[in-house]
Amino acid sequence: MNLRITPLTxxxxxxxxxxxxxxxxxxxxxxxAEPVLVAAQQSGQLTSLTVQRGDAxxxxxxxxxxxxxxxxxxxxxxxxxxxxxxxxxxxLATGKRPVEIAAIDAQLNEAEARRKLSDGQLSRQxxxxxxxFVSAESLDQARTQLARDEANVAQIKALVxxxxxxxxxxxxxxxxxxxxxxxxxxxxSTIKLGQKSQLSPVAGQVQDIYYRAGEWAAPxxxxxxxxxxxxIKVRFFVPETRLGALKTGQRVEIQCDSxxxxxxxxxxxxxxxxxxxxxxxxxxxxxxxxxxxxxAWPAAKEAAQLHPGQPVSVSLHTPQK
Length: 321
Description:
By secondary structure, this protein is α+β, with helices and mostly antiparallel strands. Helix content is 41%, strand content 28%. Helix 2 packs antiparallel against helix 5 (169-194) and helix 3 runs antiparallel to helix 4.
C-alpha cells in the first residue's frame, strides 16, 4: 500500500507536535552545605561535652564547657572590689557616722560650759576690781580665759557642721568613678565566665565534634560543627549559551534518586567567572565544557531532606522549540 503524505496530513502532525508539553531542561549539580563552626572563646580544658554527632539541637542548647576555676575567682574578686567602692561612696555621701557626730556634740557641750563659767568669772572679777579687792591683772586673765573658751566653742561648732556635711565634690566624684570602674571589671569578669560555657547559636544537626572532654582548646578552635537546614544549598552548572535564561530570584526544581517530588529552590547566586565542567558532570546533553556555577537555596523544610554531596539535577521549564 502506497502512503502519501498530503499537506493536510503534514499540518495535522505539526499541530500535534505543537501540543507537546514543555520540555524540562536539566542541569547537573550537587548538594552543598555551610555548617556553623562553634569555637571556644577562651582557652581551657574541656570539662563537659553534652552533644554527639547526629544530635538535633535547638538554639540555646548547651554544647560544651571549659574549666572555670580562674574565672569564678575573678568574679568573686570583682564583686568584693565593687562592694568596697560602693561603701566608700556611701560614706562620703552621708558625712560622719552618728556616733562620731555625738562625740563632737559632747565636746561642744563641754566647751560651752567652760565658756559660761569663764563669763561668770569675768563678771565677778570686774566687780572685785571696781571695789579694789583684786588687781587689774586678775581682770585681764579672766578676760583672756573667756576669749579662749569662746574661740574653742566656735571651733567645735565648725567641726560639728563639717561632720554633718557629705564629702567634698571632688572626693565624691572620684569615689563614683571608682564604683563605675569596679562595675565594668565585674561585667568583664562575668562575660569571661559565661564564655566558658557555650550554647548553640543555631538550630540544626551536629555534623562533627573535633575535641573531647579532657582535651585543651585554645580560643578560636572549632569544637562542634552544626548544620542548620537553612544553610543547605544546591550548586549546579549551566553552559554559557543558557546563562541568559537564569536570574537571581528565579525558581528551579530539584530532582535526585531519593528526593521527594516537587523540591524547589530559589537562585541566589550566579557566578561571574566561567570554569571547566568537571568530568563527573558530563552527560549526553551537556556538550559544552565552559560552564558557570549557580547556587540555589531550597526552603528549610525541603532542605532538611537533602544531604551534602548528594548528586542532583536541576530543571528549568522552557517551551520546546
